[in-house]
Model the fold of this input.
Amino acid sequence: MSNLFEQRKTVRKYTSQPVPHEVLRSVLEDAQKAPSWANSQPWEVHVATGETLERLRAANLQAYDEKVSADDSDMPRPAVWPEYLQERMNAAYAKVFEQSGIARGDQQAREDNWRNNFYFFNAPVAAFICLDRNLTEWSTLDAGIYAGNLMLAAAQHGLGSTPAASSVSYPHILREVLGIPEHQRIVVGIMLGYEDKEHPYNRPTSSRVTLEENIHFSH
Ligand SMILES: Cc1cc2nc3c(=O)[nH]c(=O)nc-3n(C[C@H](O)[C@H](O)[C@H](O)COP(=O)(O)O)c2cc1C
Done:
């Protein structure tokens, strides 16, 4: 098996092939081994598959198509990103569009690409990572480590994965369909499934800045 860190990438279109329950459980068992503050394991993970996921997908897409405001996400975004990060992000978006075969001025293709987020990329599994609202950034860090583990565990079991902020744009829908209680903050959704290897949305390959750019050695 190739290096898991090379293998994992953000998948943006899945086949409809369901993930066998035993495989899903194995992935979740591995992810569960994530370290956390005093082993508190604060993540509460709501996993949607089958008919429940289809109901969720339909409601989410309807909200998107009806232009329901996505501003009530439980996870605030920075009002302004530091300029050097905004530049990196702009370059990344441009590269994703270009590699997916979406021309610069093709608004319809861009719109279709964005709408695909609200369709949860056709994934057969969507896992929503939540935290008790009383927790602090330390537990959000734990949830992030858990999410990383989950995606690498998925890769180890031959599954693709997608971390998607867009998937938690409508927390009221997730709460209603999945019964997520109010006292839990919905942090992020991770989609899982089998990558549609033919689809142009899965062509993008991401690069990283060199160590010289953001690793600060002091000898
Ligand atoms: C917290 C988080 C939220 C993300 N949200 C989205 C999203 O809403 N839609 C999307 O297409 N990709 C999303 N991504 C994927 C990133 O764009 C992707 O990780 C980055 O471009 C690097 O590409 P790679 O994962 O293929 O290496 C998200 C990633 C993270 C970690």
Notes: Residues 4-77+120-202 form a domain with the NADH Oxidase fold (CATH 3.40.109.10).
